[in-house]
Design a protein that fits this description.
Number of helices: 15
CATH class of the largest domain: Alpha Beta
Radius of gyration: 21 Å
Distance between the termini: 23 Å
Shape: globular
CATH superfamily of the largest domain: P-loop containing nucleotide triphosphate hydrolases
Strand order of the largest sheet: 3-6-9-1-10
Helix content: 40-55%
Number of strands: 13
Length: 326
């Protein structure tokens, strides 16, 4: 049977996607040792047109991961250091009066970039954190009644310290819901930490990191991921997983419909990075915890039993029936 042009083109796009993603992944792993799963999830969020929240204690490489991804792609990158005195206009931009033209001119803030690295986002006040709500969801910024579109692709990579750390504010539910996934770096394995001493002790690998992909290539990858097939049973499985969080007695706040969209988009990217042009239930299972857990609020009883949202999502996955069809 002859191969149709559409099938051939789709296969070629998938092959290009895997090749470009491999280059980006190799570049990041030249800086971040021993965290292949974390790097893969970071790429998954990028190709799913999402935003990433990295939470962990200081010193484990949160900002290094964000900067490594940003440097791997030849595109405008801006960094925002979140502090208690940071204002919303410091992020979005401000209208300033021009003495010569006698008119107000808009001075774009750091959010006008393809990749925005927000360091220690939960050290700023909730009012300042909310400045990212519109741009993360709608890819636009409204200042003084005027709306400005953001370039595509657009990704926010934010780091935060655990809320138990001194000087932090918890992220509002609406803010957490706009992050596609949350990951924790974790401490490195002894072998990786030993290698880090050799590599980082003699030089700074981040300074030597060169871009390995262009903005146009990343945009093409995102377009290719959108074409990954999701069957009706798999879509139903995604809906059932999210619905289970809303009906669980262990949770007082379940996942939103936005979470369902993020879960399916991420599953498409996960499948593409695995060399498939279709999503299987395993893709949803692999991503359910990082995509859903940070949006959930445990019930007082669950908190009393020291049960975290990650554990609860894992239990729900074991209860939701898995479809047979791919």
């Amino acid at each position: 049977m002859a191969v149709t042009p559409d099938v051939t083109d789709a296969a070629a796009r998938l092959e290009d996607l895997i090749d470009t993603a491999h280059r980006i992944r190799t570049a990041i792993e030249s800086v971040i040792e021993g965290k292949s799963d974390v790097v893969r999830l970071t790429l998954t969020v990028l190709l799913a047109e999402g935003h990433l929240l990295i939470e962990d204690v200081p010193g484990v490489g949160k900002t290094m991961l964000a900067k490594a991804l940003a440097r791997s792609i030849d595109c405008p990158v801006k960094r925002v250091q979140f502090t208690p005195d940071l204002l919303p206009s410091d992020i979005t931009g401000v209208s300033a009066y021009n003495q010569q033209t006698r008119e107000f001119e808009f001075k774009p803030g750091p959010v006008f970039a393809n990749i925005v690295v927000g360091d220690e986002i939960n050290r700023a006040s909730p009012k300042t954190q909310s400045a990212l709500l519109e741009c993360m969801e709608e890819h636009q910024v409204t200042v003084d009644g005027a709306t400005y579109a953001l370039e595509s692709p657009f990704m926010v990579i934010a780091t935060q310290n655990p809320i138990e750390m001194e000087g932090t504010y918890p992220l509002p539910e609406a803010q957490r819901d706009r992050f596609t996934a949350k990951i924790a770096m974790g401490y490195p394995e002894p072998a990786a930490e030993l290698e880090m001493l050799d590599v980082h002790g003699a030089s700074q690998p981040l300074e030597k990191l060169e871009p390995v992909a262009t903005t146009a290539e990343v945009s093409a990858l995102i377009e290719a991921v959108r074409t990954v097939y999701v069957s009706q049973p798999v879509k139903r499985y995604a809906v059932d997983i999210v619905a289970a969080t809303r009906n669980s007695p262990d949770l007082r706040l379940g996942a939103s419909p936005r979470a369902t969209l993020h879960l399916v988009r991420s599953a498409r990217a996960h499948a593409a990075l695995s060399g498939r042009d279709y999503v299987i239930p395993d893709d949803l299972q692999d991503l359910a915890v990082p995509v859903l857990a940070h949006r959930l609020l445990p019930s007082p009883e669950a908190l009393g039993q020291r049960r975290h949202p990650e554990q609860i999502v894992g239990e729900l996955l074991r209860r939701v029936p898995v479809p047979d069809a791919k």
